[in-house]
Amino acid sequence: MHLATTPADQRVSHFRQILLWPLQLMPLPEGCPFAHHYHLLEQATPDNPWRELADEFCGDPEQFHERHYSEFVTFLPYVQRFLYGECASGEADAHYGDSPIRIFRRQDVAQVRMTYKEDDAPTTFDIVHLDLYFFYDIDVVILVVEIAADDLDLRRVQDTLYRFGRAYPPYWDDDGSGGHCLRRAEWLAPDGQVLAVSDYEKRSKYLSFVSRFRSPCISSHWEFLLRPLVLHHSDEDGPVRYRQIEYHRMPLLAYLAMDDPRRLSRGDFARLVLVSGPGKSGSLPYSEQHLEGFEARFCYDRYWHPQAEQPGTRLLSCGHAFIMVGSARDAYFTGLENGLLGQFRHQFFLLALIPHFHKAALLMLSDRLVTALNRLEIGNAESVKRFKRAIREVLEVFLRFTHRYWFYEISDQAQARALFTMTREHLGTERVYSELREEIQDMSQYLDSDSLRRQANTVVRLTVVTTAGLIATISTGFLGMNLIDAAQEPLSVRLVFFVLVFVPSALLTGFAIVKSKPLSDFLEALSDERLSHRDKLATLVAVWRNRRPPNAG
pTM here? Predict the structure, then answer.
């Protein structure tokens, strides 16, 4: 039986939130000095705060902690190679087996200060990590923002989950503030200096941007965080450009350590995992019909024992959000090195990262297909060539994605396997993958059939030319007979004979090529015993006629 409490009565002793924001990277411009997008961040320039994160596996073995080991052994071998790479002693190629993931981190942002709509008193959260994840051969980057705070009321936690990860406002409230967004978000330096501030309230900025670029703008504090990467649809200069690939609400993970998580009602859990914002405890955020089967669809309750002295841990996932709730009095739940807090920041983070990366990569490839089709001009030969080249590039990238990144299962551990499957089903990645594969196969079959048609047409033309040449060769070379004995004549005379033979031969060959289609029809008619001599003669006469197509105007 849940106690009748309000969200303000329920305290969250420790709160963590991790945002995952997948973005599509645009192809690098011609002449760009970088071979890959992340090479820009390898440049140590004053306007680049990002630095590549050192791999724990390549550092001092004494700094390799047990939490890293637990994370590693969670996954199946092929997933381990994807996440961490592999190496062998004495490897000739130092890059062989490297992980296809490159991670960059910035440390100039220490805190984020949030001001909410219902309360003028701001709340400050510590920035634990600010990372950018790049993936080899895939034009996708994922921004990862991890924040933490202690001793918050549940309503503030729900409001943070609901409002923090908003790239731009979907509308504006009567007071001019952005709908569903924070009133104000500020990035703070270690010394407390304000580095960037949100501008959700600048309605004219967002309206004019969409009017100009047919694409949504993002808030200034998110733009600041991503620099030196620049928004694709903007007037800013920069070789590495990005664009939004999904909904403006960023996927998230959340960890809540509470004094007694059993005090949370069914509606509280629904608000957390469905990220619907704060509400009155005991009520539901949506109708009973909509939440029918809520526990089966969104909850993983293998280790949840609300009637026991230690309630255990409740895990929830809706695809967009993953939530972990447990008791702050449970040392295992709050353990940063060997406990569930450490697992939340490592194993469970990767369990969410992989399916979101899958979906972003598939949407990126789908967008490239649509872009190639939109640029196709059927009557323009150069446009057709570019289209074929673009489709073949997408096919190549898709094949490499399938063999390098696509996994149906990532772990043999029951909990990890179940949560990965639950997240994939909610995101619908398998359906998107199947649809994209069918679209690419259709495109590939079209290109193959078009190539075969062109090859068959070329073979027909060559057959006609060969047939015409065969007649001339037999006529002039029968039994090695020379009609004109000019071997002993002067060079000038032989050149004249050569030209007299070469010019008619070239003209005859050119005529055969130009008339290869009607000539092939004549050869086919000549071999057809069902046609009369008159019909065959008519087909031969048609070779010299310039018949206009029936649809010619």
Answer: 0.82
